[in-house]
Amino acid sequence: MITALQLIFSPFETWEKIATNQRGFFWILFIDLIPMLAVVLGIEGYLLTRWGEKRGEVVDIISVTPQQAIYYAGAYFVLLLAAIFVSAKFLDWASESFNVRATYLQSFTVMAYGFGPIILARILDGFPMINTWLCWGVGVAGAISVLYHGIGMVLRPDQTKGFGLYLVSILIVILMSAVAHFAALSVLHGTVLHTKVVQAPVSLPIQTAAGSARPLLPLHRLVLEQCG
Question: Is 144 found in the same domain as 111?
Fold first, then answer.
């Protein structure tokens, strides 16, 4: 989490340190990425249960139960983690198409730290008066700024290929983070699984010749008796 903040305020020096240290895959995943996701999404979930969530253009604050917040935070945790892994693979493929000799670990390093501003922006989303997609946009803008130095200092492409690879990385981050955000909101709003409500059979009274009403019968039984 500290590294993500340093990348926002001093990206060049921080990326230089990251490129020099050359941390391994498990170090980046379990020391830097997963703890930051857990802390940030935990804060967002707590703020949602405390202040609720704004829905619609009109100021309409909807309360969020602790169970909803847990489902949402857990789903977002998995979705963002998956988005980073997939984005790293896409960047690895893009590097090959640009004839840049880079490993998946280098691409994962760029994306793991490049997603930092998007992850930190989740805290802003805990405040109901701020639009959720605006929070996502703020995070993406920070990621675009952070990736500029990350592509050059970690992947080390030629100067003629670096800017093109940077543009591709921006598209990957925007697409994958938007999909993760939309899917997480679907979990929060309960629209992931659509259930179809089936109405129970309607029962009607049958008037007998004596004028008394027989017990209520379902329509399908009524049709069978009349036909019989």
Answer: yes
